[in-house]
Design goal:
By secondary structure, the protein is of the alpha/beta class. The chain has 17 helices and 24 strands. α9 (249-256) crosses α14 (445-456). The termini are far apart.
C-alpha cells in the first residue's frame, strides 16, 4: 500500500508524533504534554528522558491507530524529528542524560552573560551573526554545567539537544555518537561559524568549552542508524527502520509554512513566540547590538533567518488557561476564552499584561510578569485579550526593526499551535499592519519532517516541489486601519511604561522574591 513516514516535534510544552503517507496526507497524530521543574527563581528545568518516554508513548499510539485503519506500522520506513534549538543537557558514555535539560526559558546564566558581553568581542557577530551573548544560548548553559554540575564534570561526554537525544536512543547510539544537524547547531548562539557550518575553535576557547564535548554536525536527512529491537517491540514498528539526524523546530516550522526564500516573515506561534524573517545571510543592520535579534541557519542549504522573540509568548497562554483559569485538562478552553475575548474592544479595557514569566529577553533589567490596570469591571475575557495583545506589542518592536532595515512585511505567515486562533491572528494583523496568512496544513514542522524522512530514503527526489503541494491557504486576515492606529498609540504608552517607569519596580519585585525564597 506504499511507504509511510513518521515525524515528531519535541516542543517545550508537548511532543507531537504524526504518520504521513507518500501523498503527504496525515494518517494519524498523537500528542502528550511535557513537564517542568522550577528549582530556583529564574530557573526552568526539564528531563530528556521525559521527552523520550513521551515520544515513545505517542509512537506506540500512532502504530495502534494505523492498525485500526488497516495499515501496517511496519510500513513506516523512516523517522525524522525536530526539537528545541535553544536547550541542552549532558550525556555520559552510554548516551544517557546525566544533567537537567536547560532551555531558553531559564535565566540562571544572566550574570555570566553580562561577564561575556563586557569583553565586547567582535568575533561573535562576525562568525555567528549574533553580536552578544544571551542567557537563552546553549553555549552559556554549557559553561554553567561545566562549572556547576559535578556529574557532568565526572561523567560527561557530550552536550545534546532534545531531538537528537530521542533519535540517538531510537537508534541505540552511545555518547560518542552524539550529533546535531547544521541548522540546530546555530541554535547554540555562540561557538560556531554559521556560514561554514562548523564549530569555531577560537570561540570555544574563549568560552572555555572543550571541543570534545561538542556533537558532530550532520545534515537533517542523514541516516544515523536503525530502530533498535527493543523499541521496535514496544512501539510496533519494524526493527531497523531508518533514523534521520533531525532538525530544529523553528527551522522546520518555517519551511512547513512556505518560508524558504529570502524576505518572508513568519510568526512561529509556539511556546517561545518567535517572529522570523528569512535572509540570504548576515545582514549588518539586523545584527547590531541592542536589536535583541537572533541569527540562525536554516535546515536547507543556503537558507538563513533572523528572529525576535518573547520567551514565554505561547507559554503565557498555557499558564493563563492552566494556572489562572484552572483548565489544565481542557484543551478546548482556549477556544472559549477567545470567543469571549472577541467581544472585548481593542486595548482590553485599559488592562496591560507583561508576558515576562521567566524574565525579560534583555540582560539589562530583571523583568517579571504582571497585570496592570485591573478594576472590578474586568474579567477573564479582558485578561485573556490583554495576554494576546501583550505578545503583539513586543512583536511591534521587532517588526519596526525589520522594516527599518528594509524588510518588506506586508504579508506574514503564521504557524504552529497559536496559528489556529483567529482572534489572535486578527489582533496581530491589526497591530503589525500586515496581512496575516494561515495555511490549511496543520502539521507545521511535523509534515516537513515526514517529507525529509521520505527524501532521506530516496522516495522523494527533492523537497521544495513536494512541499508546495501541501501549502494551501486556509484563511487570510487583513489589517484594519483604525485598529492599527489605535494599537500604535497604545504601544507608545506601553513601551514608555516598561522602559522608563517599571525598571525600579522590577528590581524590587525580584528582591521580594529573593527574600521570600530565602525565608
Amino acid at each position: 500500500m506504499g511507504n509511510l513516514y513518521l515525524g515528531f516535534d519535541a516542543g517545550t510544552q508537548s511532543v507531537k508524533v504524526s504518520v504521513y503517507d507518500e501523498k503527504l496526507e496525515c494518517l494519524t497524530s498523537q500528542s502528550l504534554p511535557t513537564s517542568f521543574r522550577y528549582p530556583n527563581p529564574g530557573w526552568v528545568e526539564m528531563d530528556l528522558d521525559d521527552f523520550l518516554g513521551v515520544t515513545l508513548k505517542c509512537i506506540k499510539r500512532c502504530a495502534e491507530d494505523l492498525k485500526e485503519i488497516g495499515r501496517d506500522p511496519k510500513d513506516i520506513v523512516s523517522i525524522m524529528g525536530d526539537g528545541v534549538i535553544c536547550g541542552i543537557a549532558g550525556v555520559n558514555a552510554e548516551g544517557k542524560a546525566i544533567t537537567p535539560y536547560i532551555n531558553y526559558l531559564d535565566s540562571r546564566t544572566q550574570d555570566d552573560v553580562e561577564y561575556i558581553n563586557k569583553k565586547d568581542l567582535s568575533i561573535w557577530g562576525k562568525e555567528t551573526g549574533n553580536p552578544v551573548a544571551s542567557c537563552m544560548f546553549p553555549a552559556m548553559f554549557a559553561r554553567w554545567l561545566l562549572k556547576h554540575n559535578t556529574k557532568f564534570q565526572e561523567q560527561g561526554v557530550k552536550f545534546v539537544h532534545n531531538c537528537p537525544y530521542i533519535l540517538m536512543n531510537l537508534a541505540g547510539l552511545k555518547g560518542k555518537d552524539a550529533f546535531i544537524d547544521w541548522g540546530a547547531m546555530s541554535g547554540w548562539g555562540l561557538g560556531y561559524k554559521v556560514m561554514e557550518k562548523e564549530w569555531s575553535d577560537e570561540q570555544l576557547a574563549i568560552l572555555g568549552i572543550d571541543k570534545r564535548y561538542m556533537p558532530r554536525i550532520l545534515k537533517p536527512w542523514d541516516i544515523v542508524g536503525g530502530l533498535t529491537k527493543e523499541i521496535a517491540e514496544y512501539t510496533g514498528l519494524r526493527e531497523g527502520t531508518k533514523i534521520c539526524a533531525g532538525a530544529g523546530d523553528t527551522m522546520q516550522s518555517m519551511i512547513g509554512c512556505g518560508n524558504f526564500e529570502p524576505g518572508k516573515g513568519v510568526d512561529v506561534a509556539g511556546t517561545c513566540a518567535m517572529f522570523c524573517v528569512s535572509t540570504t545571510g548576515i545582514v549588518p543592520e539586523l545584527s547590531k547590538k541592542g536589536n535583541n535579534l537572533i541569527f540562525n541557519s536554516g535546515s536547507l542549504p543556503n537558507t538563513y533567518f533572523y528572529w525576535g522573540f518573547i520567551r514565554t509568548g505561547g507559554l503565557a497562554l498555557r499558564w493563563f488557561k492552566d494556572s489562572v483559569c484552572h483548565k489544565a485538562d481542557d484543551a478546548l478552553y482556549y477556544t472559549d476564552l477567545s470567543a469571549r475575548a472577541e467581544k472585548v474592544p481593542a486595548g482590553s479595557n485599559g488592562v496591560l499584561f507583561l508576558p515576562y514569566l521567566t524574565g525579560g529577553q534583555d540582560e539589562t533589567q530583571k523583568k517579571s510578569s504582571c497585570f496592570l490596570g485591573l478594576t472590578l469591571d474586568d474579567d477573564q475575557a479582558i485578561m485573556w485579550r490583554s495576554v494576546l495583545e501583550s505578545i503583539g506589542y513586543d512583536y511591534m518592536e521587532i517588526t519596526d526593526i525589520y522594516r527599518k532595515a528594509g524588510v518588506d512585511l506586508n504579508r506574514i505567515t503564521v504557524t504552529e499551535g497559536g496559528s489556529r486562533d483567529s482572534l489572535w491572528n486578527q489582533i496581530k494583523s491589526d497591530m503589525l499592519d500586515s496581512e496575516v496568512v494561515r495555511y490549511k496544513n496543520k502539521g507545521g514542522a511535523v509534515v516537513t519532517n515526514c517529507l525529509f524522512a521520505a527524501y532521506a530514503v530516496g522516495d522523494f527526489k527533492d523537497i521544495i516541489p513536494n512541499l508546495r503541494k501541501v501549502l494551501v491557504v486556509d484563511k487570510e486576515y487583513a489589517p484594519r486601519k483604525e485598529m492599527t492606529s489605535l494599537y500604535r498609540r497604545l504601544h507608545s504608552f506601553q513601551k514608555d511604561l516598561i522602559k522608563n517607569d517599571m525598571p525600579e519596580a522590577f528590581k524590587r519585585l525580584w528582591e521580594i522574591k529573593k527574600i521570600v525564597k530565602e525565608g
